[in-house]
Amino acid sequence: MTEHTNKQFEADLEHVRSQFLQMGGVVEAMIYEAIEALSSQDPHLVEKVREREKEVNRHEVEIDERISLLLARHQPTAIDLRTLLAVSKMLTDMERSGDEADKIATAVRRMQDSDRTQIQLVELRHMADMVGNMLRMSLDAFARLDAVQAAKVVRSDKEVDKEWKAALRNLITYMMEDPRTISRAIDMVFIARALERIGDHAKNMSERVIYMVKGADVRHTGVRNTERQARGDEDEGEAGQA
């Protein structure tokens, strides 16, 4: 590439990075507002989440188009090509995280419309805090090209899975002890499942950050191997399972 072309490519690539981080900030806000709507029963928060989902979709389309143009017009170096491929994959996870936040808002609206009394479940707040933090950490790891922090997000997903299972057990107990709570409990299961999936998407994005920085595909290789690859340790012949 000529110097002019190279500068234009770098500017376009930085625009992709910047817009992806903006998209992530919108999804973060959606998660926070959806859970706040659950506790406050504020219908305005539900509407804010629904509006933000349209913004997330717009970002996805625009970033995807920009990546396609960059790949078509230039011949990126190895690290730049990995960045473009990683962001392309991360876009899907980020958009789906927004979809899950929108599903939470939809469930909250359903409870509001049916005037159902909310079931207090501490695990949901814990899950929301954890997945929000995972998403924030994955975005920060992406912005700083920090593979070690990305690996921490991958490990955090195990804690989210534990909270999901605990929430499910408690909700099943509610339904068994009082059949009148079944409709409410099903909505809460729906919300807990959406949070668990957001955690999965944050983990997927963090694995892509490790690929982008280290060139290592750590999917399905276990947490220990992910952490080792993120640190850049030599292969120790481990099976890689936590």
TrEMBL record:
<comment type="subunit">
    <text>Homodimer.</text>
</comment>
<protein>
    <recommendedName>
        <fullName>Phosphate-specific transport system accessory protein PhoU</fullName>
    </recommendedName>
</protein>
<keyword id="KW-0963">Cytoplasm</keyword>
<dbReference type="InterPro" id="IPR038078">
    <property type="entry name" value="PhoU-like_sf"/>
</dbReference>
<dbReference type="GO" id="GO:0045936">
    <property type="term" value="P:negative regulation of phosphate metabolic process"/>
</dbReference>
<feature type="domain" description="PhoU">
    <location>
        <begin position="21"/>
        <end position="107"/>
    </location>
</feature>
<comment type="similarity">
    <text>Belongs to the PhoU family.</text>
</comment>
<dbReference type="GO" id="GO:0005737">
    <property type="term" value="C:cytoplasm"/>
</dbReference>
<dbReference type="Pfam" id="PF01895">
    <property type="entry name" value="PhoU"/>
</dbReference>
<dbReference type="InterPro" id="IPR026022">
    <property type="entry name" value="PhoU_dom"/>
</dbReference>
<dbReference type="InterPro" id="IPR028366">
    <property type="entry name" value="PhoU"/>
</dbReference>
<comment type="function">
    <text>Plays a role in the regulation of phosphate uptake.</text>
</comment>
<feature type="compositionally biased region" description="Basic and acidic residues">
    <location>
        <begin position="222"/>
        <end position="232"/>
    </location>
</feature>
<feature type="region of interest" description="Disordered">
    <location>
        <begin position="222"/>
        <end position="242"/>
    </location>
</feature>
<keyword id="KW-0813">Transport</keyword>
<feature type="domain" description="PhoU">
    <location>
        <begin position="124"/>
        <end position="209"/>
    </location>
</feature>
<dbReference type="GO" id="GO:0006817">
    <property type="term" value="P:phosphate ion transport"/>
</dbReference>
<feature type="compositionally biased region" description="Acidic residues">
    <location>
        <begin position="233"/>
        <end position="242"/>
    </location>
</feature>
<dbReference type="GO" id="GO:0030643">
    <property type="term" value="P:intracellular phosphate ion homeostasis"/>
</dbReference>
<keyword id="KW-0592">Phosphate transport</keyword>
